[in-house]
Structures are given as structure tokens and as C-alpha cells.
Amino acid sequence: KNEVEQSPQNLTAQEGEFITINCSYSVGISALHWLQQHPGGGIVSLFMLSSGKKKHGRLIATINIQEKHSSLHITASHPRDSAVYICAAPYYGGSQGNLIFGKGTKLSVKP
Amino acid sequence: KAGVTQTPRYLIKTRGQQVTLSCSPISGHRSVSWYQQTPGQGLQFLFEYFSETQRNKGNFPGRFSGRQFSNSRSEMNVSTLELGDSALYLCASSLAQEGDGYTFGSGTRLTVV
């Protein structure tokens, strides 16, 4: 059983739609990371959050530590948002580098 | 400022050979972590180095090793390559302080034939 679960695995949306990707985790964590991976492999760190909500442009990430759940929202989605979105959590008490990753959500936004 | 640089970008090796991958972190970042990504297993943590010391290690065989130099650049080595080692190898650097995030490199895609 993966300690970090993401849903959905695949998501297809029309341009302009509001998108939500969910992440649940069973490990104790100090912070949760949201990553974006475009075709070709490069990974970009979108957010690191330990409580509440963070916003960057059209991206919003929320986390509920008690419920061990985080969501990534994309408002007014655009084809350039098409990518794999991955959430990752460090082991409780572990070093920063020791991340456990979800399997990723492949998002495709159609024009 | 320059990002995290991984070299080479692509590599083809034969079973049984060994390979060395390089990662240059962002200037000032002292922590470098390595990850393996395969279609079947997804992203998995390999090891983390901080100030030339391995701070943590994932669940990989001893064929996978690494080191970090005084300038924080890191190398990882895989000996006696197996077909299953074909993967995208990513490194990420961090200041390794509370609240810091990661900056990832573009990865090295290793193909073992």
C-alpha cells in the first residue's frame, strides 16, 4: 500500500475548467510538496506547505494536516497546464531528501 | 541564477557496465538528493547528501552509491548495470533549512541495453 495516494490518476479537461487533484497520505509529515512534471522529464516544485493554503497565479494548494489530505486546484485551466502533477511527503522526522511520492496525476487540458 | 545541472542528459550503457551521473546544485545549496523514476515504480528516493555526508538512503541495492564534494556537487554511481536500472535519474538541491523547498534538475535518462 502506497503511503501517498493521489486521485485521479488521469484527468482530461476542457480549457477554462476548474481542476482539482487530491492527495492523501498515511505518514506523519512536516510538509507536503506538489510537483509538476512536463513531458521530457523536468520537475518543477510548485508548492511546499505545512498548513492552510498557498496560491501562485492560477494554482492553489490546500492542506488539512488533521485529515492528512491535500488538494491542488487549477483555475481557468489552459493547455499549457497539461503535465503530470505529483504530491510528495517526507517521512516524519526524516531528512528533507527522503520523500515518498504519489504515483502522479496526468492532466490533459484540451483547447 | 543557474538552476540544478545534471549531466549527461542521455546515456546508453550495456548490461554489466558501470555509470556515473553528475549533479551540480544551485549555488549555496548544500543538500543534494537523488531519485529514480521508472514507469512501474514511479519516483523513488535514492539518497541524500549534505555537507559531503550521506544523510539518508533509500531502499536500493549497494550497486547504487554516491558522493558529494566540498563544492556540493554530487555524483551517483551504478555498478554492474541491469536492464531494470533503465530510468530517469533526477537530483534536487535545497538549502536544507526548515521551510525550504527543492529545485530539481532536468534529469539523466539512462538506458541499459
Regions of chain B with pLDDT < 50 over 5+ consecutive residues?
Answer: none
Task: List low-pLDDT spans of chain A.
Answer: none
Helical amount among residues of chain B, as a percent range? under 10%
What string, H for helix and E for strand, traces the elements of chain A in order?
A: EEEEEEEEEEE
Strand content of chain A: over 45%
Mean pLDDT of chain B: 92
Per DSSP, the total helix count of chain A is: 0
What oligomerization state is this entry in?
Answer: heterodimer
General form of chain A: globular
Mean pLDDT of chain A: 89
Order of SSEs of chain B, N→C?
EEEEEEEEEEE
SS-derived structural category of chain A: mainly beta
According to DSSP, the number of beta strands of chain A is: 11
Largest sheet of chain A: 6 strands, mixed
Total E-strand runs of chain B:
11
Description:
The complex is a heterodimer of chains A (111) and B (113). With 111 residues, chain A is mostly beta strands. Chain A contains no helices and eleven strands. Chain A has strands at 4-7, 10-14, 19-25, 32-37, 43-49, 52-56, 59-64, 69-74, 83-90, 99-101, 105-110. In chain A, strands 2, 4, 5, 9, 10 and 11 form a six-stranded mixed beta sheet that branches. A five-stranded antiparallel beta sheet of chain A has the order 1-3-8-7-6, with no helix packed on it. Chain B is mainly β. In chain B, 0% of the residues lie in helices and 53% in strands. Chain B has no helices and eleven strands. The mean pLDDT of chain B is 92. The chains are: A mainly beta (111), B mainly beta (113). The A-B interface holds A 31, 33, 35, 40-45, 47-48, 86, 88, 94-104 and B 31-33, 35, 37, 42-45, 47-48, 50, 55-56, 58, 88, 90, 92, 94, 96, 99-107, 109.
